[in-house]
Every structure is written in structure tokens, then in C-alpha cells.
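Lab meeting, item 3. Inverse folding demo.
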């Protein structure tokens, strides 16, 4: 910065010096030189543009003509103001300047004015003679010469050249400095404060000055929360400093193979190249030069050499090479941390078939199973090397874990999804398989983030400390720019803190009973039990009031039933704006993610009388065909919800009309079928409302039977009407609504995987809408079923017809059994026994009942594959 200021100062001095060399010499008629105060005059042209002219040292120039009657100017006099002076190129002039051997002179008294219309159009500046000199012009006004436009241009060009030279010097100095430092960053700051990590042709790299003296030692886990809060202060200032101090690349690293002309087209980004010492070598193809190259690098894990292969997202022309690498490295797990397209840019070619099989080079890939979940998709491929009939290779199973919740900009809103995803990868990767292939688009940013989180979780478990700075520096010696942005760097710490504070809260249903006994036991040193301690952690989640801007607008405040429960901006439900009316896109409702897909639910408050129209506009706009109502219209003498549906006669709200077609009373809820019509669009839809009556005015339902029944009914309705959002509301849209969403999500995962995680499910809900699941007793729990109800409950929880009786061994149907799970090649599927207990809430007095079903490898399958796989459901007395 000091060099910059000095050079700028020098440029100003040089500019002044160049200007001071322009001088004016008096004419041979004896006109004295003008003083410094008179050396520059400003002439206003007819269009009022001011032209500043320097008269000192002026070269010969055409004379300037002013109106007659100009006052005299003596040797020491100041020139008169020239306001109103005009320039007329075609006007006749009174005199002309002649140039002698020594410079410009005053015009001759006998000078003849130019004829009118002369093409030399000139300026004239007459002055009256001073009495002490006795010099006069023939017209009564004495003239002095001035600089020419050519000289003015030369002066301007000289100044411009000096400035350009200085800029070039500065650029060269800065470039040399950063080149020596060898530290680059690929991130650039966007207007919304988030950081983008990619460009179509290359990854942007901003130079930085590494701090070689600053040390960032490993951090004990018990100081993790304190240190993260300290470093995040002042807009992550200390985190940015730490990130900027990371080494960019090893000094001796080379990229000769990647830089070969034959390989340049194989690189997605010209500045993200694998180092020669760590790149993956493919087996050369005979007759194809440089066929051993692929843009991929071996990366160490925590205490495990070459645990990962960090690769760029395959291009169309490198898909065959990608599968060749998978086969040759004996890879069983692929981790994909990008979508195929983001912001309309291709980030990765689709290197797998949607269904059936496809051959890539000499590798045949067939799709065995696809599981779509809210944060990621799991695809199972069967691959086989083809081409050599005499030496046919055996088939291999490769699983791709595709994380789909990474936003186009920045990082995920919460690390919960990434931690679940990473655990699934670690659990499913075979022990003796080859390196795990991880790729995003360039294979450095998100890829590096995944690798670092994996390694630091292992380090946390082993050493009770983390060394993010040191580990990132080490893997950057294997592949450039691993962890590209400061936001990714901070996200790593947030994921580690999330794991440290809350741990792994997933449960196999087989361990549920022992876990419940544990959490109902008093925690040593406290007066509360484990369940109460868990709920305290949930209530400590900060409510982000600053992210409720729209709901807090004065025009929208009256639309909120409870002022503390307002939707966040990032997931609020937006409805069309009414023509000519402002602030009509707001309704107090939030999108909520489910188990399998995003925005599975709309959590809404119970409509107020003046927001019924907005409620139905929301239902129509987002094509919600199922409404779950968890409150009565009035409870304890207070209105909880306005009646928004018709009874005998049709009901109209703006362009929306509703007509009750059918009403059925079930054991604990009422089902109403409504015909909803948009008169403006002239279209109609069927909407079904499930009105639950089993929630008491105070407390919670005595058992979970009614909730299980209504959840099963809603899921059946969804399968018939399509997977549009389910609208759920109570009064404020948080307590009972959150309990329903949580229980529905938990049960859906139990059915699919035999795993439940109540804590993280509720935590995720609270991050999406304030106060979801408001009380400890409102937290979802598994309640008992009375005797004689097991078979019906099993059918409703499963959402399918009761399966055949179990085998005598108690295991699910195996090979050869009707509906048994088996692989495509006919080999029997493997199953293990899992059980879940619906424990009594303590108020029914009934004996607990255990519902057990066989669970197999196909449990994580899609909705279509998870039903009808022949799993056996049995009921046992505990």
C-alpha cells in the first residue's frame, strides 16, 4: 500500500511538471508575459462546456475571436472574466498571429482579417493596449496568443501515459509478489454474502498472503464450541485469517501429465490439475497415447493412506475413463457431491444409466436399485468388465451416494444432512474395498470438505481433538485447492461441533427398549433424566428473528395468530400477489422437509377469519390435496381456528369456491371430501381434510393409536393423489403440527430402514419453523397398543395389507419364499431381525406390545421397492 501511495504521488508530480513546461512568450510588439494568475483562462463554448487553456509556452495557434469591447489588460493585470465568450469558427477575425524565429508574435497592425467562411475557423482573443506600453491593435483591441488544441492533447496524453506506466509497474510488482508467495484462493464474494466456488472454464483463484508465523495447533474437543464462537465473531474474521494462511500447493509439485496437449481436453477446469506424484494412473490402452491419464488424485484419510480418490466430475469424453478407474481401483463406493446442473451450468456428465444397463468402454453398468431421500440418493450398480469372452470377469456391486442438498451457492444451511450422509457412506463401504471415489465438479471444494469432515470425525473419536488446519494443509499437498472457500472451511467446523454437541442419535429399533430405559434414568449430578436433558438441548436452538422479515411487516402482523411463531424467509410459503395490492403474497406457513423429499409438508397456523382466503389460495397454488387439522375450532373458550370449510352450502373466498361432497366419521378423526374450484381458471380439484379429534385440550393423546391411524390414512391418500405437500395445522402451527410431522417422518424411516432418530428429526423441524414441538410431552414417542389391535395396527403402520405369517425361525422370507428378497441373479437376499416397541404412555394401563418385522438389504429402497418385498411383520408380547 505504501508503494502504491508513493507511485500515485509521483504521477501527480510528473503531471504537474509536464503542465508547467507549457509557457507563453510575449509578442515582438512588446506585449509582456502574463502573470501566473493569468496563465490559464476558461472559455465557455455556446453549449456551456468549459474549456481550460494554458497560455504559458503555447505553440503557434490560430487566433481566438471574442466580441469587441473587451477591457484593456496591462502587464500586471488579471485577465477579465470570460463568461459568455463564444466560439464562432465562421466568424471574421480582426487579426492573426504570426510566428517568428523566436516564437509567436503579435499580429501586424496591417493584418487582414480572414474572409468570412474561411475553412481555417480560428479563435481570436483581443485585448486593449495598456497605457504604459502604447501598443494597440488595429481594431482597438490588443491580442495575445494561446495554446493550440494539439498541445492540450499532447499534455493530456503525456499524463495518461504516465498513469498507465505506473499501473503496469504496480501490476508487475503485485503479480511477482503473489507468484512468489504461491498462495491462491478460488473464492469470490457474491452480493448476498455467499461464496460461489466454480466458474464454467476455470476455478477463480484470488491471491492471498499466507501467514507463515501464525500457528494453528490441534484443538481439543472440549474447547471446540468456545473457539468456533470466538473465530466466527466479526463476520468470521479469524476464520478467514486461518483459511487464508493455508498453503496453496507444494513448491516442488508438477502437473506435467495433466498439461500435455493430448490431456488438456480431459480437464474440466484448466487450473485444477492433478499433481504428478499423487495422480491416479490408469492402465494404458494399447495404441492410444496418454490413455493412462485421468483428472483424479489419491488422498489420505485419517491414519489411512490413499483412503480416497478425489476426482473431477466426469466429462462426456471421460466417462469411459471414470468407469475404468472404478474397476481398476476396486472401488465399491462413489460419493457425488454435486448436481448434474447448477445455475444452468453443466457441473458433471451423467455417467450412469437411469435404468437397465449401459456399456461404457469395456465396463458394463446396470442399475440394481435407486433410493431417493430428502438429502441424498442412493444408487446401486452392478458392473462387469466385458470384451474378453475367454476371461470373463465376475460382477461387482458399486454403490453411489449422491448428496443432493448442497445449494448452488455457499454451503448447506445445517450440517445435519451431511453428517447423516457421511455416516451412511462409512457404514456401507465394504471393509476390504478399494479407495472411495469422491467427486464434485472440480473435485476440490466440496470433495475436500467431505474428506476433511470424515477424517476429523475419526480423529475426534481417537484423540479427542481436531486438526482442521493441519489436515487441509496436508491434503493440499496431494491435490490443489482442497477446500476451496472460507465458507466451506467454516462448515467443516460447524459439522464437527454438531457431532460433538449432540453425537450420534440414530437408533436401531432393536435397541429401542434399552435406550428408553436409559433416557428415563436420572443423569448423575443433575435433577433431570436423559430425556429432559435432550429436550433442553433442543430448546437451546436459537430462534432467528432477523430472518422473519416478511412476517414482521406492519401489513402482515395482523395475519399472524401468535406473534412469536412467524415463518422464516428461506422456506416460507409464498402465494401469488393480488393485482394492485401490496403484501398479499404472505401467509403464515412454512415448507417442511420429510423423510424422502423436500417440502413434504406445509406447516400452517389455523386460519384467522380474515386469512381464510389466503389459506385456500395457498392450498390451490401448491396443489395440496391433503389437509390435516389437529385442533378443534374452539378449546377452553378460545378460538383456535376459524372454520374454513363449508357445511351444507358452498363457500366462496375470492376466486376459490369450496363444496362439501362427503363427510365420514372415523374412530378418532373426521374425513371431509371437498371439491375446490378456481373460478378464474375454471378448474376443480378434490381435497381431503383429516380432522383429528383425539388431542385433548390439555396435554397429549393418551396413546399413539389415533395418531398412527391418521398418519396411515394420510399416507394412503398421498399415494392416490400424488406427492404434493401435505398441509398440517393446529392453532399456531407449531406444537401439535410439529409433533405430527416429526412422528410421520420417524415412522417412515423406521419402515424403510429400521432406524429412528427422534432428536435430530425434531431439531431439523425447529430449524425450519420456530417452536416446532413446543413441550417435552409433545415430543414424539412410541405408545402402546391395546390387545386385539395388533393386526390392524401393523397394517396401518406399514401402509399395506397384512403379510403372511412368519416363518418358524422368526426371520423374514428368504430365498424361495413367496415375495422373498433375492438379487437379480437369484442369490438369496440377506436379512436380519429387527424389532420396534410401541411403549405405553403410562395412562392406558395396557400391557406393552412389540411389533417386529424382518428387515433386509432392500429396506433402504424407494417407496415402490420398500413395499411388497415380502418382509414379515409379527406381533409379540413383551
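The presenter then showed the designed sequence:
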Amino acid at each position: 500500500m505504501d508503494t502504491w501511495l508513493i507511485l500515485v504521488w509521483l504521477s501527480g508530480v510528473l503531471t504537474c511538471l509536464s503542465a508547467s513546461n507549457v509557457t507563453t512568450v510575449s509578442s515582438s510588439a512588446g506585449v509582456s508575459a502574463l502573470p501566473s494568475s493569468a496563465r490559464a483562462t476558461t472559455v465557455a463554448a455556446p453549449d456551456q462546456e468549459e474549456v481550460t487553456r494554458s497560455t504559458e509556452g503555447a505553440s503557434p495557434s490560430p487566433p481566438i475571436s471574442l466580441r469587441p469591447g473587451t477591457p484593456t489588460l496591462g502587464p500586471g493585470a488579471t485577465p477579465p472574466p470570460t463568461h459568455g465568450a463564444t466560439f464562432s469558427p465562421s466568424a471574421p477575425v480582426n487579426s492573426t498571429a504570426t510566428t517568428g524565429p523566436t516564437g509567436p508574435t503579435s499580429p501586424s497592425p496591417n493584418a487582414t482579417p480572414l474572409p468570412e467562411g474561411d475553412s481555417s475557423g480560428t479563435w481570436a482573443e483581443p485585448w486593449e493596449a495598456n497605457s504604459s506600453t502604447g501598443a494597440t491593435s488595429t481594431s482597438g483591441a490588443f491580442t495575445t496568443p494561446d495554446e493550440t488544441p494539439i498541445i492540450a492533447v499532447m499534455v493530456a496524453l503525456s499524463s495518461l501515459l504516465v498513469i498507465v506506466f505506473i499501473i503496469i509497474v504496480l501490476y508487475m510488482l503485485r503479480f511477482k509478489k503473489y507468484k512468489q508467495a504461491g498462495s491462491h484462493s478460488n473464492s469470490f464474494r457474491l452480493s448476498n454474502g455467499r461464496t460461489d466456488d466454480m466458474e464454467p472454464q476455470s476455478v477463480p483463484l484470488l491471491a492471498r498472503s499466507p501467514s507463515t508465523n501464525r500457528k494453528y495447533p490441534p484443538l481439543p474437543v472440549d474447547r471446540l464450541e468456545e473457539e468456533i464462537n470466538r473465530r466466527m465473531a466479526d463476520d468470521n474474521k479469524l476464520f478467514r485469517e486461518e483459511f487464508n494462511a493455508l498453503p496453496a500447493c507444494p513448491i516442488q509439485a508438477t502437473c506435467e501429465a495433466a498439461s500435455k496437449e493430448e490431456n488438456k481436453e480431459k480437464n474440466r477446469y484448466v487450473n485444477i490439475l492433478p499433481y504428478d506424484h499423487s495422480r491416479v494412473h490408469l492402465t494404458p490402452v494399447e495404441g492410444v497415447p496418454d490413455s493412462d491419464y485421468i483428472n483424479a488424485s489419491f488422498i489420505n484419510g485419517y491414519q489411512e493412506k490413499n483412503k480416497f480418490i478425489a476426482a473431477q466430475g466426469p466429462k462426456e469424453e471421460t466417462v469411459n475413463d471414470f468407469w475404468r478407474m472404478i474397476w481398476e481401483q476396486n472401488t465399491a463406493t462413489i460419493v457425488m457431491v454435486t448436481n448434474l446442473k447448477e445455475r444452468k451450468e453443466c457441473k458433471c456428465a451423467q455417467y450412469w444409466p437411469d435404468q437397465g444397463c449401459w456399456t461404457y468402454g469395456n465396463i458394463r453398468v446396470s442399475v440394481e436399485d435407486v433410493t431417493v431421500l430428502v438429502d441424498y440418493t442412493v444408487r446401486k450398480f452392478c458392473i462387469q468388465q466385458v470384451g474378453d469372452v475367454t476371461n470373463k470377469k465376475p460382477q461387482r456391486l458399486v454403490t453411489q451416494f449422491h448428496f443432493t442438498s448442497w445449494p448452488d451457492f455457499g454451503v448447506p444451511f445445517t450440517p445435519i444432512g451431511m453428517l447423516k450422509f457421511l455416516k451412511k457412506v462409512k457404514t456401507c463401504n465394504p471393509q476390504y474395498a478399494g479407495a472411495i471415489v469422491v467427486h464434485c465438479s472440480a473435485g476440490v471444494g466440496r470433495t475436500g470438505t467431505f474428506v476433511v469432515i470424515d477424517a476429523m470425525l475419526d480423529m475426534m473419536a481417537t484423540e479427542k481433538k481436531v486438526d482442521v488446519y493441519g489436515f487441509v494443509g496436508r491434503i493440499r499437498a496431494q491435490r490443489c485447492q482442497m477446500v476451496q472457500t472460507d465458507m466451506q472451511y467454516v462448515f467443516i467446523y460447524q459439522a464437527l461441533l454438531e457431532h460433538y454437541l449432540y453425537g450420534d442419535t440414530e437408533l436401531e429399533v432393536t435397541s429401542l427398549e434399552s435406550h428408553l430405559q436409559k433416557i428415563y434414568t436420572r443423569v448423575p449430578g443433575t435433577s433431570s433424566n436423559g430425556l429432559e436433558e435432550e429436550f433442553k438441548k433442543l430448546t437451546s436452538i436459537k430462534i432467528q428473528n432477523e430472518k422473519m422479515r416478511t412476517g414482521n411487516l406492519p401489513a402482515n402482523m395482523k395475519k399472524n395468530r401468535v406473534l412469536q411463531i412467524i415463518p422464516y424467509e428461506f422456506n416460507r410459503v409464498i402465494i401469488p400477489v393480488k393485482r394492485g395490492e401490496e403484501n398479499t403474497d404472505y401467509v403464515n406457513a412454512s415448507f417442511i422437509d420429510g423423510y424422502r423429499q423436500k417440502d413434504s409438508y406445509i406447516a400452517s397456523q389455523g386460519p384467522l377469519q380474515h386469512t381464510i382466503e389466503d389459506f385456500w389460495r395457498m392450498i390451490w397454488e401448491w396443489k395440496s390435496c391433503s389437509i390435516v387439522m389437529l385442533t378443534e375450532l374452539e378449546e377452553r373458550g378460545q378460538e383456535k381456528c376459524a372454520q374454513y370449510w363449508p357445511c351444507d352450502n358452498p363457500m366462496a373466498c375470492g376466486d376459490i369456491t369450496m363444496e362439501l361432497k362427503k363427510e365420514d366419521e372415523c374412530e378418532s378423526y373426521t374425513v371431509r371430501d371437498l371439491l375446490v374450484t378456481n373460478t378464474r381458471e375454471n378448474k376443480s380439484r378434490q381435497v381431503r381434510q383429516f380432522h383429528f379429534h383425539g388431542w385433548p385440550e390439555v396435554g397429549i393423546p393418551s396413546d399413539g393409536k389415533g395418531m398412527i391411524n391418521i398418519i396411515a390414512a394420510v399416507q394412503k391418500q398421498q399415494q392416490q393423489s400424488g406427492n404434493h405437500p401435505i398441509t398440517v395445522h393446529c392453532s399456531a402451527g407449531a406444537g401439535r403440527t410439529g409433533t405430527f410431522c416429526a412422528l410421520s417422518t420417524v415412522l417412515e424411516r423406521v419402515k424403510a430402514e429400521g432406524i429412528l432418530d427422534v432428536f435430530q428429526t425434531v431439531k431439523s423441524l425447529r430449524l425450519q419453523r420456530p417452536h416446532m414441538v413446543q413441550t417435552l410431552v409433545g415430543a414424539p414417542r412410541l405408545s402402546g397398543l391395546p390387545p386385539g389391535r395388533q393386526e390392524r395396527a401393523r397394517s396401518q403402520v406399514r401402509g399395506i395389507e397384512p403379510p403372511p405369517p412368519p416363518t418358524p425361525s422368526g426371520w423374514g422370507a428368504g430365498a424361495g419364499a413367496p415375495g422373498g428378497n433375492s438379487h437379480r441373479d437369484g442369490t438369496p437376499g440377506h436379512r436380519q431381525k429387527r424389532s420396534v416397541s410401541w411403549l405405553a404412555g403410562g395412562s392406558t394401563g395396557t400391557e406393552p406390545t412389540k411389533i417386529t418385522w424382518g428387515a433386509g438389504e432392500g429396506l433402504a429402497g424407494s417407496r415402490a421397492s420398500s413395499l411388497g418385498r415380502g418382509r414379515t411383520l409379527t406381533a409379540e408380547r413383551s
